[in-house]
């Protein structure tokens, strides 16, 4: 059955017009623990992101310069969202709503440096209560009743930096490894992450400068690349060291939150997924696992959630 599915994705992904260039992309990504289990509804329980990416004017030292605008929403709950007693909240209720601007510089040596700036709000103004109960009505789940104890309102300002560099690729070009690093600092989270991403292709892999794996698949007449068929599995293990997380500890700008917890600094993350192209569409699914981010959780064997992504290229 698995072999048949892989053959299907490979065949479907090959349906793309040759020698095309698309300089813009719109994207929708949905993350939810229901995508890995029909009964889990806890901790990082939902994320939704809409973005617009386009190729910017570059310079001779770069392969590409890419801008991205994004609106995102993230939602967190205790192990049971129907627990009203404050003593039963093993994790705070929290929601973060933000806008993000990103600048991605793609270098000729297959390395990428990204800077992003987030502006948003954490707390009731992020409408986590309303959104979760809307989702619960769709799935027929009970109403979440503990949101009145959520992390209090505070402004979210965050700066993010990321660096990625190809470290190995086989001569046949069906397997590669990329060193990935990221850091954040601000009023919502402060952390650093390092690890690697490996792509296993069903067909020869694209350069880091022109792949859906790295959000670099936008082109115009100034680039030497075309939008090309891609189909691969990726594996991404990383280690994160967290210094501060307002969704767990509450914001230092507003210390009136009734439920706060202490975070675990070191967290292991593991992602495995499938990405492929169909004409102008790029689609994918990712399974995510992370070890505990805070102590004394009712379910202390880590957390899983899934991500479904859909991207559409524009002229």
Structural summary, described in words:
The chain is mostly beta strands and 315 residues long. 9% of the residues lie in helices and 50% in strands. The protein has helices at residues 2-13, 128-139, 246-249, and strands at residues 24-32, 43-56, 62-77, 94-107, 111-122, 154-169, 175-186, 189-201, 231-245, 266-278, 281-290, 303-314. It has a 12-stranded antiparallel β-barrel. The model has no long low-confidence stretch (mean pLDDT 93).
User: In percent, how helical is the residue content?
Assistant: under 10%
User: How many domains would you count in the coordinates?
Assistant: 1
Low-confidence parts, pLDDT < 50 over ≥5 residues? none
- Helix and strand succession? HEEEEEHEEEEHEEE
Estimated share of beta-strand residues: over 45%
Distance between the termini: 37 Å
Mean pLDDT: 93
Summarize the structure.
The protein is mostly beta strands. The chain has a single domain (25-314), classed as Beta Barrel (Lipocalin). It contains three helices and twelve strands, in the order αβββββαββββαβββ.
What are the salient characteristics of this protein?
315 residues; mainly beta; Lipocalin; 12-stranded antiparallel barrel; 3 helices; 12 strands
Write the layout of secondary structure elements.
Blueprint: H1 2-13, E1 24-32, E2 43-56, E3 62-77, E4 94-107, E5 111-122, H2 128-139, E6 154-169, E7 175-186, E8 189-201, E9 231-245, H3 246-249, E10 266-278, E11 281-290, E12 303-314
Antiparallel strand pairs: 1-2, 1-12, 2-3, 3-4, 4-5, 5-6, 6-7, 7-8, 8-9, 9-10, 10-11, 11-12
